[in-house]
Amino acid sequence: xxxxxxxxxxxxxxxxxxxxxxxxxxxxxxxxxxxxxxxxxxxxxxxxxxxxxxxxxxxxxxxxxxxxxxxxxxxxxxxxxxxxxxxxxxxxxxxxxxxxxxxxxxxxxxxxxxxxxxxxxxxxxxxxxxxxxxxxxxxxxxxxxxxxxxxxxxxxxxxxxxxxxxxxxxxxxxxxxxxxxxxxxxxxxxxxxxxxxxxxxxxxxxxxxxxxxxxxxxxxxxxxxxxxxxxxxxxxxxxxxxxxxxxxxxxxxxxxxxxxxxxxxxxxxxxxxxxxxxxxxxxxxxxxxxxxxxxxxxxxxxxxxxxxxxxxxxxxxxxxxxxxxxxx
Length: 328
Ligand code: PBG
Prior knowledge:
Elements: H1 16-21, E1 32-39, E2 47-49, E3 57-59, H2 61-73, E4 78-84, H3 101-112, E5 117-122, E6 135-136, E7 142-143, H4 145-161, E8 165-168, H5 175-185, E9 194-199, H6 206-211, H7 232-244, E10 248-252, H8 258-267, E11 272-276, H9 278-289, H10 295-309, E12 313-316, H11 319-326
Parallel strand pairs: 1-3, 1-4, 1-12, 4-5, 5-8, 9-10, 10-11, 11-12
Antiparallel strand pairs: 2-3, 6-7
Helix pairs in contact: 2-3, 3-4, 4-5
The structure holds ligand PBG.
């Protein structure tokens, strides 16, 4: 064979040690956030499987505590809480009630594990009878400005309960400004806001709507969540949120929107979060249960892809499993 001059990329792949030495990205326990659904129930043993999300449950406060205890032993650093109230109403009042279920859960977790970073999802859809993220007008429109005050009240209630980070997921305009002002006024100047800045009107939230019982009873979320066809618009959303005082900006869903993670990483200095949503979890689980994919392999691959795209932190329903894997 004549002497050919070509690139030998395989040289650096010859052994596990060499591959590790040149590895560019890594998923670390401190990057990962686990999601929990906490239900308001009289039954302390309540632990209801979410059929479209095998391995995930709606949990009573006691069950949540048990679940988190196990996860913390495996190295859990942070979790994101969603609430399922016993009663819903037009204005989602349980979202900002002092004894709302998420507020109770935050107090419980922070009492047990002061060092655990407890993130509160701030939205109305789990608490409203109509299932929308904002106030609904008589014409069925989702009203922006009247919703802001309720979101701000929810954020303050969560911060009072001890939430470490407030994460507004409603996609109303101006909510970061409203929440920042309310938090500051209530004395929570050091409570960061992680904004769901680039949040799409996505079909990948399907299983979540079973999990959190928050599906809209009419219409959809397309007048407030972003059009999946748009990329540049995400830059405007993220810039606005940062301008209004967001500390961390998020892209959601995750895997189909890795371009947006990269775009935010390249355009802003703030930490970027990626949310691997319920539908992404369910797809991997379903394929794995059929024997079509190797679960551990694709889960690690999907998470390192977020890091490669530029995410600092990753919200994933696989967090507990991954912590076990990382611990060997
Ligand atoms: C609340 C909220 C949703 C999700 C997170 N917060 C539902 C929605 O916007 O419709 C979805 C999370 C997931 O699918 O895992 N607004």
